[in-house]
Amino acid sequence: MSTRVKEQARLEKLKNKLVRRSRRNYRRFQGVKINPSFFHKSQIKFLLMMLPMLIITLLPIIYIFSHAFKSLSELYAYPPKIFATRLTFDNFRNLILATSQTGVPFIRYIFNSLLSSTLTILLSMLIGSLAAYSFSFLKYKMKKALFALNQLAIMIVPVAIAVPRFIVMSELGLTNNLLSHVIPLLAMPVGVFLLKQFMDQVPRELYESAKIDGANNFQIYYKVVLPLVKPALMTVAILAFQASWNNVETSSLYVDDEALKTLPYYFSTLTLGTSAIAAQGMSAVASLIIFVPNIVLFILLQKNVMNTMAYSGIK
Fold it and tell me: What is the pLDDT of residue 88?
């Protein structure tokens, strides 16, 4: 009996040892893969190599935050200083005072920007994913030619098609309303390309199995493919948000009603009726307000962006 107990204890000890080893190997793997979940000592050399680049990358971000809290004397100091020696909220007070003197409430500009950005994100994800699904899974004539046109559209500068785009928007009666901020930004060739590259890696066995089970194309698209390409969808969401939130052209080209214009356009015209000295401080605060949502969204979704760039075929 004692021999049996000893054998069970030995087996239990061996089992615990194997479990600890497997956990250690798992943590080691998680520490060396792309976008690792754990720290591993092999990362130290890469962290030391990236530290100078990190500092260089952070300096403009620090400058944007610091610039908004500088006094007028520091704003015009030469050579410019990255860090503010005396923090002040005068620039914020001047901005609030200027916004309170306009005929349109400041909250209206924020609402227009949030609504147009939300619609742009949702519709860009929907249209881009549907187009990518058709390029990746469906068979039809001229599919390769259409995808080649999408690739060609990536190289077209938006300003080159500003006049044709304005003519189309005007003829369709889509000017001077909230859709004027959404429709021109829905065409996102880069988003279609990223999603298509991601969908190409979805095993075709899943598609065939769903077909055999009687699922139609929309069910396969919604229930099978979309959950597997979530990182690429989040990347498209970031790109669409940045394109919409920072956009000034739609308000200046397609909208005449002041109550329908967006926050970036309002900030671009805010300093027209003030002196250049006071305008510098308000411009610094406006830049900070426009910048913060972009960096917050990127921080929240940066894991998905890393996965997209690693697995979408972009090297």
Answer: 82
